[in-house]
Amino acid sequence: MKKTVHNKLVRDRIPEIIEKSGKRAVTEILSDEEYMELLNKKLMEEVQEYIESGTLEELADIGEVMHAIMDLKGITIEEFQRVRMEKLEQRGGFKEKILLKEVIED
User: Fold this and answer.
1) Distance between CA 61 and CA 3 in Å, rounded?
2) Which of 35, 39, 55, 89 could cysteine-pair with 30, CB 3.0–4.6 Å?
3) Residue 47: Cβ-neighbour burial (10 angstroms; 0-12, 13-18, 19+)
4) Closest by Cα among 40, 60, 41, 64 to 50
5) Would 74 be classed as within a structural domain?
6) Sequence-distant (≥ 6) Cβ neighbours of residue 70 within 8 angstroms
7) 100 in any annotated domain
8) For position 50, what pLDDT does the model report?
9) What is the rounded distance in angstroms from the CA atom of residue 4 to the CA atom of residue 84?
């Protein structure tokens, strides 16, 4: 019997997909604290995968993790968008591709 240990947060249907392939998935339901810790780890993982691939799929994975974090924290998409727009108005976005090279004080 071959066993592969993963110990990582996966999407909800992954155990079902594994079972349909004829394998057995051993799972555990996490506490909120464990879940948040692993969501943060998953976010870093997905960002790294996006940096390496630059694909829309990896960008979508980042969004899915962000939505899970917002759900856990009780943040609505409307609240998220409101804060995003406030920051956009106050500080701008990144469309102009500005590189700040130095700040000189007299």
Assistant:
1) 27
2) 35
3) middle
4) 60
5) yes
6) 76, 77, 80
7) no
8) 98
9) 41
Other CB atoms within 10 A of residue 81 CB: 11
Write down the residue that tokens 């066993």 correspond to.
3
The confidence score (pLDDT) of residue 49 equals 98
Residue 23: φ, ψ to 5°: -105, 175
Mean pLDDT, the chain, rounded, equals 97
Residue numbers of the domain that contains 61: 30-89
Tokens representing 103? Answer: 């700040």
End-to-end CA distance of the chain: 71
Give the span between the Cα atoms of 17 and 7, in whole angstroms: 17
Using the CB atoms, write b or e for 66-79: b if 16+ within 10 Å.
bebbeeeeeeeeee
- Structural domain count, the chain: 1
What is the amino acid identity at position 25? A
